Amino acid sequence: MTTDKLEWLPLSTPTPPPKKQLSAGELPCPTCGWPIASNIDTCPHCGRSRDAAPTGDILATLGLELPPPVIEAVTVPADWYRPDAPLSPPGLYQLRLQAERLRVTTGFDRLICLDDISVDHYQHQLDAALRVLRDMRGRALLADEVGLGKTIEAGIVMKELLERGLVNSVLVITPASLTWQWQEEMTAKFHESFEVLEDLSQWPDAPVENQPARYIISLSRAKSAQWAERLLSRSYDLLIIDEAHKLKNHRTAAYKFVNQIRKQYVLMLTATPVHNHLLELYNLITILRPGHLGTRRAFRDNFIKRAEPRYTARIVYSHTPPLPYLRLTGQERRDALAQGQTDRIYQRTTDINDLPNLRLDRRGRRAVQTIESLLADGYEVIDFEAIRPTFWQGYSFVCVLNLTEAALEARQKRKPVTPDNPAALRQLLREVMVRNRRSSVGVKFPPRRAAIYAFDLTPPERQLYDTMTIYIRQELRQSTDLSRGALQMSLMSLQKQLCSSPAAAARSLQSLVDRRPDDPRLAEALVLAWGIRQSRKLVATLDLLAQYPGKFLIFTDYLPTLELLVKELNQAGIETVAFHGGLPALDRLETVRRFRDSARVMVSTQSGSEGHNLQFCHQLINYDLPWNPMRIEQRVGRLHRLGQQADVSIFNLSANNTIEAYILDLLARKIRMFELVIGELDLILGQSDDDRGFERRIEAAWEESLTEAELAQLIAQLDQILGQAQSEYDTIRSASDELSDLLEAMDEVRPP
Amino acid sequence: MTTIPPSSMRAFAEAFFTHFGAPIEAGPDELIVELPDPLAAHFGRPRLYLVLPTGHDKPRDLSPHEDVLVYGSRIFERMLALLDGQGELARLAYPRQVAVTLATELKPSLRRPVFRLVETAVDRRQPWVQIFNFRVTYRSDEKEEMFETIVLDANGRPDPAAEALIRSTAPLADPPGLLPDLEPQPEQAAALMRQRAAGHAAELQQSMQARLEKVLLRLTGFYRRLMAEIDAGQPDQDEQARADLQQELDRKIADELERHQLNLTLTPISMAVALLPSVHYRLAIDDPARPDPAHPLTGSERRATPYEGSPPVVNAVDPLSRQWSRYRWHVVPHDDYTIYLGHHWLWGTAVLVLDYNGTVLHRQQVGWVGSSH
After folding, report:
1. Can you tell me the distance from the alpha carbon of B223 to that of A581, in angstroms, rounded to the nearest whole number?
2. Pairwise CB contact (< 8 Å): A80 & B184
3. Does the pTM of the predicted model rise above 0.90?
4. How distant, in Å, are the alpha carbons of A272, A320, A370, B108, B229 from that of A363?
5. Tell me: the pLDDT tens digits for A445-498?
6. CA angle A169, A170, A174 (to 5 degrees)
7. What residues in A contact B146, CB-CB < 8 Å?
8. ipTM more than 0.90?
9. How does DSSP assign A422-481, residue by residue?
10. Does the distance separating the beta carbons of A62 and B253 come in below 8 Å?
């Protein structure tokens, strides 16, 4: 009885919301640009009269002068002309003059870098880059919707500034998961070599202020004391912050660190500048242009609708039951502390500014976010106490605030981005923020559909998989801490190869047998792997190739699998080429050319395919599944990208009752990753990120479970976390859509 | 004698490849260039398909073998690289320049046949000049570059008239082999260039100052309000918080001042000594009511003949949108130029002086309903 099943995943199509109309905009202050209501004569921001033209007295008031121009010494050679010197013919002299006249740069009237980058750029990206350079003077929040190429826009701005000699040092701050991706993109697309900072020894002993620099560093590393001290010791011509929404909270160490960096040009990239509250946007823009949106209080007064003002009830945030200590009244707690009854308290603070310094788990951090947004709503702290109990209770977190339940209820009903004075806010945002929507720039991704091809392994494959899975789990449990690191890596790798192909597993087993020749279980498994003549996945692949005409790109992570596939498919009469990172550059080009011109299938490892145009193909098979979903997204992104004309089909091979099947189920059904636009997956996973990526969570679940039932239980927990992350992302997306509406909405015409 | 065409990307590309001996096949928006060996090695291929954007259409899709030739494009950069270090020193000769001024106040009532054209005063010069070319880069929070030419006369004095002539004319491709008797003075040119650049820098600083003031107003307004909002009820802490904010403000102001510092770089590009022969004519038109003035050199008188000539071969319409053909013309040919005296019953009198290339050396119109010069 066959168990094969090809199931197409359902797709949902969201309907775009209707456009809104905003009330009339305020007139900007002629001096500082702050919007002033028509019935007010004096700007509440800079204090100048509405009718006053900008004057030059601010410099004098501050006792400053515009620094005089610095003229570099002219180095005219004294012997520039000698009667006996060799002369150029007039034609050549004149040609040089023509060239020199054509090469002069006159402001940001055009982009000069486009021929020096290897990017399929789009008009909205060029427009954004020019707007940033010309109108925003290189300080901008690039907030395009996901998938429209914010990195490309930032790269173009960077390259343009570099080519014009305006920038010499660049610091890129990204989430830890993206540092290497940034490095690769900067190299492949913009031909700029960046150094990923990971070790303190990489930092020069005595960095010179104006020394050229191209650094990429993760935000978590950069804000650490040792790195922060070094990074802040110099200024940067250009600072790029990817996933800038991580700085939405101005009380965090990350925010404070970034705010201290001395920079000339700043680009902040995020598709979701508002998650829960408009003040998050305020925080981002205040890094870019301090004072552009006024002080926090002024911003709240001008743009944020107030919630109910008073509060009396006490709210406790915790995922563990409140400790007896917290059931005490304020005075009782003070007495208890005075009597030294603090043995169960590990960290305690009554200063709300210390919140970011508590070491918290995910729920604790979420609680802090909630508190932040309550504060942002205008609530004031009258009784605050945060406690982290002793270690044995884990990283729980308890906080007491006083609020009314009615106020909370009102807050929950309110949408995060609905400002007062929307037209005025829009006017201010447009000066610092670029936000393109897919619908407004006319960029359409081709439709894509995904299917899971599920099947049972053959008995020998099943035997190999089950035997080795038990073996690997046992070995990991028995390993000592000292040997664990390397062993864990190779055993985990073996587990992944078991899912890829017997050939891949055999190669890994061989290496283990070489290291442990006395282990009979390994030798038996190796013999078993060698003996498997036909992989079930290969049969499924041939089936797909027979069912669906046209070219196929097949991804595998392992060279033995790649070699096996190429051999078997060619033997089956299907012209197949192999592409992997070990190929020299010219061979890669030739392979892609062959795939385009004649071969039906290209089997590729992930490395190296970036930068090659593969859009002539629109069918992809995930032969094996990377446990890191971002890598799956990168694979899909090779075909499903701007410029692809045909509908893209993604086939995922899934052997029943293997770890791959669990992962695929989680990704395809829970967060519906194959429906997401490129970039969205990272945002969703970012919501659930607690310093361990999805891949590490899967590895941990797999490692910690002794049986399949235990694994299923742990995966179910992960499923819950992802569900929560998905739900949070939906809220964020809704907030971002509101922000887009705000920026796109038409002003009502103000009556004269 | 041939002259070198003016600057434009297409003209430059054609001049460039012609100079280096590469045959060009030109299309409306493209150039196909067969590259000889040394050039083929430099560009990395034997043939270039260059696409020149026309500016008014959407850029066309390029096939893989085509290259767009625009400012900043890779091909343009390769062309510049080939020219680097070349054409830095030359001896030039410009075609003779003719300049004409009208010494008489023109009246609209100048009517047939009562005017007389008086022989001109002549000023013939044949000077050597020194030409210095610089690239000036103005860099602050943005970058602007200018190409500047300084012309000094043989004595090292600035020569604005020669500079204007050189700007409007290309040198001869094959100059006579004369050697100048002058010692070029690059230091003087550099000093003059510095002075001129400082003048432009002052203009740039004015606009920069307005920008800086706006930034400073934003920053100071912001920080002052922040300081005013501090009220934790603990004076010492409040004072400290204000001091911290003031310190932060001072740092940001210092950063902004640095950001708005204008840096100028003067880069010498090339120099030449040039023969710049020129002739200056002064014309006078006499009123017959007064005694006929004699020719200043020959003493002879010249009486104009009545209007009977053809209209000048220039644009059919004058700057006042009047058709030249509706004037009646009196034509006076000369060695270096031709004078056209025109008359219309309503539009009045027009004087046009054209050289033999059709260049207008002088144009003046005085009428009952409008004048132009």
Report:
1. 54
2. yes
3. no
4. 21, 10, 10, 93, 33
5. 778 888 999 999 999 999 999 899 888 888 877 776 555 666 777 788 888 898
6. 160
7. 104
8. no
9. HHHHHHHHTTTEE---HHHHT--PPPEEEEEEEEPPPHHHHHHHHHHHHHHHHHHHH--H
10. yes
